[in-house]
């Protein structure tokens, strides 16, 4: 009986620790780009450009280390405590889940025969939605 109570207490402590460690910025986040720039593809050439910053939603699942953004699922690695580096194809989204700051890179550019898109980099912040 004593061992059973001890095991239940250990399980309760584990669940409590797990919920606190994965709580900061888990769930749906509302993100706003502060600045967005890069290279615009036009008439077969790239030129330095500024783009209009956007707002978007991110669904962060810290337990599974994934994010969903713009109907796409990114796989993530927790590179450092609370720093998630998420990748999908030719896009990268780096997020500090503690303070909500992010950096986003997008573009395949001219690396393939289909590459004629813009190359962008942005930074901004996310808050709980």
Topology:
Layout (H helix, E strand, L loop, with lengths): L1 H20 L5 E16 L2 E6 L4 E7 L4 E4 L2 E9 L2 E6 L2 E6 L4 E6 L12 E10 L1
Antiparallel strand pairs: 1-2, 1-3, 1-9, 3-4, 4-5, 5-6, 6-7, 7-8, 8-9
Textual characterization of the structure:
The chain has one helix at 2-21, and strands spanning 27-42, 45-50, 55-61, 66-69, 72-80, 83-88, 91-96, 101-106, 119-128. The chain has a single domain, classed as Beta Barrel (Lipocalin). The chain is elongated and about 75 Å long. It has 129 residues and is of the alpha+beta class. It is built from one helix and nine strands; from the N terminus they run H-E-E-E-E-E-E-E-E-E.
- What is the gyration radius calculated from CA atoms? 19 Å
Q: Compute the separation of the termini in Å.
A: 45 Å
Quickly give the structural class: alpha+beta
Sheet of most strands: 8 strands, antiparallel, barrel
Kindly report the spatial arrangement of strands forming the biggest sheet: 1-3-4-5-6-7-8-9
CATH-derived architecture: Beta Barrel
Q: How many E-type strands?
A: 9
Query: How much helicity do the residues have?
Result: 10-25%
Beta-strand content estimate: over 45%
């Amino acid at each position: 009986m004593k061992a059973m109570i001890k095991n239940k207490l250990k399980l309760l402590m584990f669940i409590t620790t797990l919920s606190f460690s994965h709580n900061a910025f888990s769930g749906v986040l509302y993100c706003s780009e502060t600045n967005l720039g890069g290279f615009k593809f036009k008439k077969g050439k790239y030129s330095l450009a500024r783009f209009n910053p956007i707002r978007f939603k991110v669904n962060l699942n810290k337990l599974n280390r994934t994010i969903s953004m713009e109907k796409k699922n990114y796989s993530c690695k927790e590179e450092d405590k609370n720093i998630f580096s998420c990748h999908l194809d030719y896009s990268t989204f780096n997020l500090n889940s503690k303070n909500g700051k992010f950096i986003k890179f997008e573009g395949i550019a001219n690396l393939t025969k289909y590459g004629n898109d813009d190359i962008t980099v942005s930074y901004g912040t996310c808050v709980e939605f």
